[in-house]
Specification:
Layout (H helix, E strand, L loop, with lengths): L26 E5 L4 H12 L3 E6 L2 H14 L3 E5 L5 H15 L4 E4 L14 H29 L3 E6 L3 H4 L5 H21 L4 E8 L9 H7 L17 H12 L10 E4 L17 H4 L8
Parallel strand pairs: 1-2, 1-4, 2-3, 4-5, 5-6, 6-7
This protein binds NADP nicotinamide-adenine-dinucleotide phosphate.
The site of NADP nicotinamide-adenine-dinucleotide phosphate (NAP) has 30 residues, from helix 1 and helix 4.
Amino acid sequence: MTEPIGLPRPPAVGDTALRPGTFDGTAVFVTGAGTGLGKAIASEFARLGADVVIASRKPEHLTAGAEAIEAIGARVLTVSCDIRDAESVAAAFDAAVDAFGLPGVLVNNAAANFPVPAEDMSPNAWRTVVDITLNGTFLCCREFGRRHLAAGTPGSIVNIGASYAWTGGPGFVHSAAAKAGVKNLTESLAVEWGPYGIQVNCLVPGLFPHEDMTDDIRGNLDRTHDKDACQPALRVGERQELGWAATFLASPYGRFISGHTLVVDGANWQRRSMTNPPVTTIRDQMGRPPFEP
Ligand code: NAP
């Protein structure tokens, strides 16, 4: 009998597929790179020679991100930035240009999210998540695109998406709708800016648990006790796997890939049962009492 073995584990953190120095002389601007997956992605660019710009709001996140990049031996600039605010984004790019020159790569990683039944969501919660995840991503793309168009230089954008962009995300209606917008704007911008030498792609992580996850997201994750067993790969993602995909998309070897959404999730989003499991409402999954208007 053949036992399920799952997908093989990747090489360890520190290994690289691209040649050393692939990003020498290139500044890479990563939003939300002081935590979790943004930090992991920024680290892989740093390992390949990039100068890294970390843009986010909280000083403790900026410090943690800088420490990770410095430990690799790369140059790093931290800038306090709220991506919802166009002036704050412009000021962050000004600082990046002063430090390293115009970034050649933008990774729109920052996002906001928490599980909530749609009927319990406040208008402010909806607006906040859409403002950070969708509007903030557009504002950063816009700043990057305008500067490259003005300079006549090529560039590469990697937007971080999520697979519920096309499946819907029960319990995450705000984030799922915003990520659908991120996938869609990737496709529009790739066409609009291709003639100016700007690649625009989207990278979708599957389940990548990490120590910086917010309590809300961790609490949701804790509802699945054996996370590996619930993935077709029989394992969750290791963060360097996402970093490798991001560096490939933005590298000279991915130049003809644009408008694409690359999913790194061990086929989890395609998963379906042969027989329908019973439906459990989002309220029940979250242990919430019946809805009270
Ligand atoms: P995370 O640890 O919660 O990181 C989010 C980052 O965004 C934080 O560093 C935060 O920094 C920054 N941020 C939030 N609002 C901001 C704002 N207004 N301006 C600037 N920065 C802001 O999330 P993660 O798990 O690493 O996820 C990273 C990306 O992957 C997100 O786009 C997420 O949707 C996507 N994703 C993750 C998973 C997963 O399994 N982890 C799965 C699918 C998709 P500050 O608080 O310092 O601003």
